[in-house]
UniProtKB/TrEMBL annotation:
<feature type="transmembrane region" description="Helical">
    <location>
        <begin position="390"/>
        <end position="407"/>
    </location>
</feature>
<keyword id="KW-0472">Membrane</keyword>
<protein>
    <submittedName>
        <fullName>ABC transporter permease</fullName>
    </submittedName>
</protein>
<feature type="transmembrane region" description="Helical">
    <location>
        <begin position="228"/>
        <end position="247"/>
    </location>
</feature>
<dbReference type="InterPro" id="IPR000515">
    <property type="entry name" value="MetI-like"/>
</dbReference>
<feature type="transmembrane region" description="Helical">
    <location>
        <begin position="50"/>
        <end position="74"/>
    </location>
</feature>
<keyword id="KW-0813">Transport</keyword>
<comment type="similarity">
    <text>Belongs to the binding-protein-dependent transport system permease family.</text>
</comment>
<feature type="transmembrane region" description="Helical">
    <location>
        <begin position="7"/>
        <end position="30"/>
    </location>
</feature>
<feature type="transmembrane region" description="Helical">
    <location>
        <begin position="276"/>
        <end position="302"/>
    </location>
</feature>
<feature type="domain" description="ABC transmembrane type-1">
    <location>
        <begin position="51"/>
        <end position="246"/>
    </location>
</feature>
<dbReference type="Pfam" id="PF00528">
    <property type="entry name" value="BPD_transp_1"/>
</dbReference>
<feature type="transmembrane region" description="Helical">
    <location>
        <begin position="496"/>
        <end position="514"/>
    </location>
</feature>
<feature type="transmembrane region" description="Helical">
    <location>
        <begin position="186"/>
        <end position="208"/>
    </location>
</feature>
<keyword id="KW-0812">Transmembrane</keyword>
<keyword id="KW-0997">Cell inner membrane</keyword>
<keyword id="KW-1003">Cell membrane</keyword>
Length: 519
């Protein structure tokens, strides 16, 4: 039986401890009060309101993103709409804008004195409350669903739909009884990401003044200084995340959609749009204007009013801070993700190592699924109680980024390991190379594309991350996201605009680099 070497086993154990210990300490902190206080906290009527708001917003966002992503994916994958590339861009580019940037841009565009009022004379009521949060989250999270549904529709075997039509099904019945069931795994995969994103969102709901668990955690910790209640709110949020993960696993159980025939699936003939051409263009135009044109025009408009040397000196310092932290976090995250992916790929053949691989991978995804504010709160309570010298340090912030985003880097590295044959590593060992020499000379060069892709994903995610940065950043650390949030919260739209534009530019450049490398 092959044993996992110490240089791979140690990072795996550190990941398990790094994710589980703070969450366990959060639980201990929550139950530290006396019974009367705990009873008052747990059964507080405010909790029911927050729970209802969080559930309602999550469910409504899933419905809204489905209504946007499904027709757009069908048009891009299965229709005669031209150019298809335009639809793919409309379905992916909103990911370059963090939700709180989109919220800032739409708030700054509307209302008296907003960009639309100044440029076009359109005094539109600013978005707010439930509908405002729903609209913004839908616009800037639907690409998670679009990408999955688009890929599923492109690979769906048209023979299944043709057989249904031969059996007398109408086009609508065929779509409902054949196409939609085969889109179920793709929908669940995208819906899981969106639901976790909505649960952990703090910027959008705060700007929209819509109370959810995430907004309440930040308020209780920073304004009310109620540490016990904020710990319970974090646990409630963790419970919702666990429930969503359980539901996704439950719905995916016993799903078997593999083709029986060994032949290669054909590409489906494009569906002619006919009278639906104009509505299709209307959908594409509405998405493009709401998610891309209005935010970009608004940000550029407000940036022009802030053209002064001091503002851009501050912007440059903020950009260097953000890029430096993101680059360091990308390096540490990729270094931690490599042994986790390697154990699962090369040592997951025996029961003992397979259990270790499953445990470390699930814990890594638990760290990613844990809402950022709850995870930040757990780290704060853990460091204050166990290692107070680590509290509010740059090292703690990088550790939080690493543990939260390590799951993002595992996927590209694992994909590279699947295609890289282990025979080359075995040949190097036969030639006298030590395990570390084989790793450095053979394995890492083969995995360079996957390592760079994983690092790029983490770099972009850290650059946009807001909740972890707000709660854990040391004094004096002012990255783009923190400066943008500070100015936006005080309605200083002109001061916030350069930071928003820099974030979008970094997001677009990083996304294009990832796409080019994976092309």
């Amino acid at each position: 039986m092959r044993r996992v070497p110490p240089h791979l086993l140690l990072p795996a154990l550190l990941t398990v401890l790094g994710v589980l210990l703070p969450i366990g300490y959060l639980l201990l902190r929550a139950v530290s009060a006396d019974m009367d206080e705990l009873r008052e906290i747990v059964f507080r009527p405010r909790n029911l309101e927050l729970a209802w708001n969080t559930i309602l917003l999550t469910a409504a966002t899933l419905a809204g993103t489905t209504l946007l992503a499904l027709p757009l994916a069908f048009l891009a994958a299965r229709s005669t709409f031209r150019p298809r590339r335009l639809l793919v861009l409309l379905g992916t580019l909103p990911l370059a804008l963090p939700g709180y940037v989109g919220a800032y841009a739409l708030v700054a565009a509307t209302g008296l004195g907003g960009a639309l009022d100044t440029l076009l004379g359109l005094n539109i009521t600013p978005p707010s409350g439930f509908l405002g949060a729903l609209g913004i989250l839908t616009l800037f999270t639907f690409p998670y669903l679009f990408l999955n549904l688009h890929a599923a529709l492109r690979t769906l075997d048209p023979a299944l739909e043709e057989a249904a039509r031969l059996l007398g099904r109408t086009p609508w019945q065929t779509f409902r009884e054949v196409t939609l069931p085969h889109l179920r795994p793709a929908w669940l995969s995208g819906a899981l990401l969106i639901a976790l994103h909505v649960l952990g969102d703090f910027g959008v709901v705060s700007l929209m003044r819509y109370p959810t668990f995430s907004a309440a955690i930040y308020q209780q910790y920073t304004a009310a200084y109620d540490r016990v209640y904020s710990a319970w709110l974090g646990l409630f949020l963790l419970a919702f995340a666990a429930l969503i993960l359980w539901l996704e696993a439950r719905l995916m159980r016993n799903v078997r959609l593999a083709r029986v025939s060994p032949t290669t699936a054909r590409r489906a003939a494009p569906v002619p749009l006919g009278a639906w051409t104009l509505p299709a263009w209307g959908l594409a135009g509405a998405i493009g204007v709401a998610a891309l044109v209005i935010p970009l025009v608004t940000i550029v408009y407000w940036t022009r009013t802030e053209l002064n040397p001091w503002a851009f000196n501050s912007l440059w310092a903020s950009l260097k801070s953000a890029a430096g932290a993101a680059a360091l976090a990308a390096l540490t995250t990729t270094a931690l993700a490599f042994p986790l992916a390697y154990i699962g790929s090369r040592y997951g053949t025996t029961p003992r190592t397979a259990r270790l691989a499953r445990l470390t991978e699930r814990v890594a995804y638990l760290g990613y699924a844990t809402p950022p504010l709850a995870f930040a709160l757990a780290l704060i309570f853990f460091t204050l109680g166990v290692v107070p010298g680590l509290y509010q340090t740059f090292a703690l912030l990088i550790m939080a980024y690493t543990l939260h985003f390590v799951a993002e880097a595992i996927g590209p590295i694992r994909s590279g390991l699947v295609t890289a044959t282990p025979r080359l590593e075995e040949a190097a060992r036969v030639l006298g190379y030590s395990p570390l020499q084989t790793l450095w000379s053979v394995t890492l060069p083969l995995l360079r594309p996957g390592l760079l892709t994983g690092a790029a994903f983490v770099f972009l995610s850290v650059l946009k991350e807001l909740p972890l940065t707000l709660l854990l950043a040391p004094i004096g650390f002012e990255p783009l996201s923190r400066n943008l949030w500070t100015h936006t919260e005080e309605a200083q739209y002109a001061s916030a605009a350069p930071y928003a534009l820099a974030l979008i530019a970094c997001g677009v450049v990083t996304t294009l680099l990832i796409s080019r490398r994976n092309a």
